[in-house]
Amino acid sequence: MTTENSGAAAQPFDFEAAVSELEALVAQLESGKLPLDASLDAYRRGSQLLVACRERLAAVRQHVDMLDGEVLRAFDSGDGA
What we know:
The protein has 81 residues and is mainly alpha-helical. It contains 3 helices and no strands.
């Protein structure tokens, strides 16, 4: 995950917190009550969160696929039952 805040780079990525923040940003944008510049900032932050969440999901999916592959190989190489 890339980030503009170097201090945040040292902290682990919290997927659930990112999703919650993204949901809050979407609600703010949908309300139509934000000024134009605040809307642009919210959209920019939401885009960053979306990319980070997608990257995290892809990494988790890859890890799960690897684990499933190991389990399936171990099961398939059993005693033939």
